[in-house]
Specification:
Largest sheet: 6 strands, antiparallel
Shape: elongated
CATH architecture: Roll
CATH topology: Thiol Ester Dehydrase, Chain A
Helix content: 10-25%
Number of helices: 2
Order of helices and strands: EHEEEEEH
Radius of gyration: 17 Å
Distance between the termini: 36 Å
CATH superfamily: Hotdog Thioesterase
C-alpha cells in the first residue's frame, strides 16, 4: 500500500476517527468518510469556483481498499483535474496516517456552481488558484471584479472547455 499521498494532491485535511464514526464492526463507517470527503470537496470547489453555491453533481465509483479504527488519523487529499464551463472536477484519495495504508480513491467528483435560481453559471476559470481568494464577499455571488473578468474570458473565447463534465449540467 501507499505510504504517502500523491504528490499532485493540492488540498489536504485530516480527521481523527472517533467512536461516533464507527460501524458495527468497530471500523470507520464508510458513510462518515464519504460525508467528510463531500464536505472537503465542497470547500475546495467553493474556493476554486468563487461561488458559495457550488453543489455536488457527480461522484464516480468509490474504491475502498482498507479502513481505519477508533483513534486513527486519516488524511484526505483532493486534486483538481479539470475545469468545465460551470464545473470543477477533482480526484480524491484518503489514507490512514497510522497504518500508512490507502483507504480509498475516488477518480471523479464533479461540483457545479449555481446562480440565485439554482441554474449552472459559467465561472470563467481554467486553472487552480493559490495566490488569491476567489470567495465572493456577498451572498454567494462573485465579486464585481471577478464577474467582469469571468465575463471577459467567456466573451473572448466563446467556447466551452472540453473536460467531459459539462454534459453533467
Amino acid at each position: 500500500m501507499s505510504d504517502s499521498m500523491s504528490a499532485d494532491v493540492t488540498f489536504r485535511s485530516r480527521r481523527w476517527v472517533r467512536p461516533e464514526d464507527l460501524n458495527a464492526h468497530g471500523t470507520l463507517f464508510g458513510g462518515s468518510l464519504l460525508r467528510w470527503i463531500d464536505e472537503e470537496a465542497a470547500i475546495y470547489a467553493i474556493i476554486q469556483l468563487g461561488n458559495s453555491r457550488a453543489v455536488t453533481k457527480y461522484i464516480s465509483e468509490i474504491d475502498f481498499v482498507s479502513s481505519a479504527r477508533q483513534g486513527d488519523l486519516i488524511e484526505m487529499g483532493l486534486r483538481a483535474t479539470a475545469f468545465g464551463r460551470t464545473s470543477l472536477t477533482m480526484r480524491a484519495e484518503v489514507r490512514n496516517m497510522i497504518t500508512r495504508e490507502r483507504i480509498l480513491t475516488i477518480e471523479k467528483i464533479v461540483f457545479v456552481g449555481l446562480d440565485d435560481h439554482g441554474q449552472p453559471i459559467p465561472h470563467g476559470y481554467t486553472d487552480i488558484t493559490y495566490e488569491r481568494d476567489r470567495l465572493p464577499h456577498h451572498h454567494g455571488l462573485m465579486r464585481t471584479e471577478d464577474r467582469s473578468t469571468a465575463d471577459q474570458v467567456l466573451a473572448g473565447s466563446n467556447r466551452e472547455a472540453d473536460t467531459g463534465c459539462d454534459h453533467l449540467q
